[in-house]
Write a structure and sequence with these properties.
This protein has helices at about 5-10, 15-25, and strands spanning about 40-45, 50-55, 55-60, 70, 85-90, 95, 105-110, 110-120, 130-135, 135-140, 145-150, 160-165, 175, 180, 185-190, 200-205, 215, 220, 225-230, 240-245, 255, 260, 265-270, 280-285, 295, 300-305, 305-310, 325, 335, 340-345, 350-355, 360-365. It has 2 helices and 32 strands.
Length: about 375
């Protein structure tokens, strides 16, 4: 089915697919913030802080108090905006890509952050989050390339970047032997991390917008056609498929035995990783575009219509009396922290909520100024 046919087939794709259309149209625009008004915060976290890439700044926010620890840059620049989740590691590296086509390595310095290095080789925006692994940082770009950079210097680590058939919007994934990346050309690629050569690729017939999920020897990939594919990590062969009710924007979370995901029809699923058989399905309050989060014996789904729903992993029974109601639109993945669930929001003053996974109570952790 063509992308245009898919768009008109189901209006419930709403702004999710309209964003994709806009990206295709605007891919060649010179403005570094062409999608600024239609983007959600890129968020990552360590044990102390949330790192929020949103508009003109990258913010470091205390998970406990919500106080801003620092921001980068110190002053807003109309030519610079950030929406890709920053990449973090235990050594303190903070790598973030911008809509100005640059990649920045940052180190905090009091109330701000210093630039250790910048990479300016990308020809388009950085929409997906980078990956830090084995002394390198792997950066996906909307210019169709995956760049491998030396983590300490920012110099290219491959003789040439990997090039896909269309934009790279999702973060790469690594399992030690391969780097896996999904592209908007309908393909999933397995790359050699040493030189970026393609080990295998698989055409799934429809766009995959999110990072594949690693589940043992399988990669789980949801498509806009509403099919979840399980691919063998070694050769890309299809182990099984599962047909959802509608497009799958966010890929599954897994506990090793089962996978949990939702579609834009607003249906949440639990299926077996071994063979794709369904354990249970539940209705959500609205369309879902985010990967769910697992905490203990519960799984949490963010719906576009400002709600977070919690279900028991085993049987899909509600874990709370009712869904948590926030504000704004919830399109990004909830993130598990020691303080609770971080839930990014858009089109609202509060861009980051903290939700208690035990009872669904919530508070606004951070309002962008």
């Amino acid at each position: 089915m063509s992308f245009t046919m898919l768009l008109f087939r189901n209006k419930r794709l709403g702004v999710l697919l309209s964003l994709l259309v806009s990206a295709f149209i605007l891919a060649g625009c010179s403005s570094a913030s062409a999608l600024a008004a239609s983007s959600w915060p890129g968020v990552s976290a360590d044990e102390s802080n949330a790192y929020v890439a949103y508009g003109p700044f990258v913010h470091a926010i205390s998970l406990r108090t919500g106080e801003e620890q620092w921001r980068f840059p110190s002053e807003a620049d109309r030519a610079v905006s950030f929406y890709a989740p920053p990449a973090l590691d235990a050594a303190g590296h903070i790598i973030v890509g911008g809509y100005d086509k640059k990649v920045y390595s940052l180190t905090p310095n009091g109330m701000g952050a210093s630039v250790v290095w910048t990479f300016e080789g990308s020809q388009d925006r950085i929409i997906g989050g980078p990956l830090i692994a084995d002394g390198k940082v792997y950066v996906p770009s909307a210019d169709r390339h995956l760049y491998a950079l030396d983590l300490e210097t920012g110099e290219p680590a491959w003789n040439q970047p990997f090039e896909a058939g269309h934009s790279l919007w999702s973060a790469p994934l690594m399992n030690g032997s391969h780097i896996y990346i999904a592209a908007l050309d309908h393909k999933v690629y397995a790359l050699n991390p040493e030189d970026g050569t393609v080990e295998w690729s698989m055409d799934l017939g429809s766009a995959v917008s999110d990072t594949p999920t690693l589940a043992g020897e399988l990669l789980l990939c949801g498509t806009f056609q509403g099919v979840l594919y399980a691919l063998d990590v070694n050769d890309g062969s299809i182990a099984w498929t599962f047909d959802a009710s509608d497009a799958i924007w966010g890929n599954p979370a897994t506990d090793g035995t089962n996978a949990y995901f939702a579609d834009v029809a607003g249906i949440a699923y639990s299926i077996s990783v071994a063979n794709g058989s369904m354990n249970w399905q539940r209705d959500l309050p609205g369309p879902a575009s985010a990967t769910p989060a697992i905490v203990g014996d519960r799984v949490y789904f963010a719906s576009e219509t400002s709600t977070v729903s919690a279900f028991m992993l085993e049987n899909g029974d509600p874990a709370w009396p009712s869904s948590a109601t926030l504000a704004g639109r919830l399109l990004a993945d909830p993130i598990v922290t020691g303080e609770g669930l971080l839930v990014p929001a858009m089109e609202i003053d509060c861009v980051l909520y903290m939700v208690d996974p035990d009872n669904g109570s919530s508070r606004c952790l951070f309002q962008a100024q």
